[in-house]
Design goal:
Elements: H1 2-17, E1 39-42, H2 45-55, E2 60-63, H3 78-86, E3 89-92, H4 101-108, E4 118-121, H5 144-161, H6 166-191, E5 200-203, H7 209-215, E6 218-222, H8 235-248, E7 252-256, H9 262-271, E8 274-279, H10 294-309
Parallel strand pairs: 1-2, 1-3, 3-4, 5-6, 7-8
């Protein structure tokens, strides 16, 4: 049942995105940056970070969403539409993560000329997990091994846009993939400090499912039901979660940046446990913060989770 539900939702997401995605990525870049390099626009900054590793000096890579923005709730501005229309390639997470994406791309596509940006769904090809609410979980990127598929998809899209530099993109991708595999080994080692029976996670919403699957955690529950931070919880759901936490012996509730801590602190107080705030699950930090790159973000989160459960 879980696999069937995930597949159906994945197909629905593809049906929304694919009409906007021109598979003929081999067409030449539509526009170029001021310095002469084609523009690549990643929706989220962690995608921009990964893309920049692959692009090297061949593309100008920027992020659309500002630091701290939540893709679940983001509302694009006219300036965002202009940025999309100027890009040669737009990289999105996909899988329903960016609910605004279809409208944004449609608004950025000149009517009647068959144009519009090329869209790459970075998570394409990954098999999704169903959340506790039966939704497809789009947070693939919080598993570094899944992130490898993102990098491979980005590499292939860049090679299609600029076939003369295929080997360059392949080499850059291979180097970054090696870093992701090293990151995975490091996280696994850190998590190994937590006894298996104590690897229980309570989060604001269900964003750490793939992380949990990869490193042997159990998602005990979430403050908000499902995979979107825009969801709301009923009083009964909160009461049931509080009881479950009290029975389980879980040690902390984990919240991402930008999240209201009110409900979580209420639950934590009643259950007699702590809240751990400021996980980076949807955005990197500012350059001078603790998580300015994807690898830094994952290391920061892993440390926070391990320390919160020890």
């Amino acid at each position: 049942m879980k696999a069937k539900g995930a597949l159906a939702l994945k197909v629905l997401t593809a049906a929304l995105i694919l009409p906007l995605f021109t598979c003929a990525c081999s067409r030449p870049p539509r526009k170029a940056a001021a310095e002469g390099r084609p523009k690549v626009l990643a929706i989220e900054n962690f995608l921009a970070d990964a893309a920049a590793h692959v692009a090297g000096d061949r593309f100008s890579v920027q992020a659309l969403l500002p630091v701290g923005a939540d893709p679940h709730e983001y509302e694009p501005s006219p300036l965002d539409v202009a940025k999309v229309s100027e890009a040669s390639l737009v990289i999105a997470n996909g899988a329903g993560f960016e609910g605004f994406l279809a409208t944004l791309v449609r608004n950025a596509s000149p009517a009647g000329n068959g144009g519009g940006p090329v869209i790459l769904e970075a998570s394409a090809g990954l098999v999704g997990r169903a959340s506790g609410a039966g939704e497809l979980d789009p947070h693939f990127f919080l598993d570094p091994i899944h992130m490898i598929r993102y990098v491979e998809n980005i590499r292939d899209a860049f090679s299609a846009l600029d076939a003369g530099n295929t080997r360059y993109f392949q080499d850059n991708a291979a180097a970054y993939i090696a870093e992701l595999r090293a990151l995975d080994r490091w996280i696994d080692s850190e998590v190994g400090r937590i006894p298996q029976k104590e690897r229980l996670l309570v989060t604001n919403h269900e964003s750490l499912g793939y992380f949990a699957d990869r490193y042997g955690f159990t998602i005990l529950g979430t403050i908000l039901p499902g995979t979107s931070s825009a969801a709301s919880a009923s009083a009964r759901q909160i009461a049931l979660l509080t009881e479950r936490i009290a029975r389980s012996g879980v040690k902390a509730i984990f919240l991402e940046t930008g999240t209201s801590a009110r409900l979580a602190e209420q639950v934590a107080s009643e259950a007699g446990i702590e809240t751990v705030t400021e996980l980076y699950t949807h955005s990197l930090s500012a350059p001078d913060g603790p998580a300015p790159t994807y690898i830094d973000m994952m290391r920061y989160n892993a440390r926070a989770i391990v320390e919160g459960l020890l």
